[in-house]
């Protein structure tokens, strides 16, 4: 992809995503809908990844711009199998709505799951654009489902991005898939339920 076109695409996408706001009351009254049952685990959990970066501290100086996110929850709740899978792409302007791909839960289960992740990662010593930090939530209510996200407050003074991620109770791994593609994988286990969040990024090393 040509650099100029690529930069324009990812910057428009990130701006539209970062400025997105839900209407008042939506977070208190999320929009639930029925979904097909989850028959298997998503491909991103079984994909073979070889280029393990190690930690966010080992990233080169660059800006990582989120291109899409997948959120998957599985385990046992109320003695029954629980599976939910959500997806959102950020490559269009405005960003496409978050959607639930599938869901399987007990009939009377009402529960909310949440993980936090950055959609912009700026590793320059002097930040070019800074970090953009978001909370992602998957919800279920009587076999209906909802997937949404909300921008959170920035890092506190002296707080690192790694500390911010770990404060949610998740641990993470970051992979370099190609010269310009990275993936951040967050995993959080509570009781009998495990949450997985995959954020895939494009690198913009020469952003000015």
Unreliable spans:
1-6, 12-26
DSSP strand count: 9
Structural class: mainly beta
Overall geometry comes to: elongated
Average pLDDT value?
Answer: 83
Number of spatially distinct domains: 1
How many strands, what sense, and barrel or not for the largest sheet? 9 strands, antiparallel
What's the number of helices?
2
Estimated radius of gyration: 17 Å
Tell me the β content: 35-45%
Write the element-wise H/E pattern from the N-terminal end onward.
HEEEEEEHEEE
Notable characteristics:
208 residues, mainly beta, nine-stranded antiparallel β-sheet
Summarize the structure.
This protein is mainly beta and 208 residues long.
Question: How would you characterize the overall build of this protein?
Answer:
The chain has helices at about 5-20, 160-165, and strands spanning about 65-75, 80-90, 100-105, 110-120, 130-140, 145-150, 170-175, 180-190, 195-205. The longest helix is centred in the first third of the chain and has 16 residues, at about 5-20. The protein contains 2 helices and 9 strands. Helices cover about 10% and strands about 45% of the residues. Strands 1, 2, 3, 4, 5, 6, 7, 8 and 9 form a 9-stranded antiparallel sheet that branches. By secondary structure, the protein is mainly beta. It has one domain (about 5-20, about 30-205). Residues about 1-5 and about 10-25 have low confidence and may be disordered.
Question: How is this fold's topology laid out?
Answer:
Blueprint: H1 3-18, E1 63-77, E2 80-89, E3 99-104, E4 110-122, E5 132-141, E6 144-151, H2 161-166, E7 171-176, E8 181-190, E9 193-203
Antiparallel strand pairs: 1-2, 1-4, 1-9, 2-3, 4-5, 5-6, 7-8, 8-9
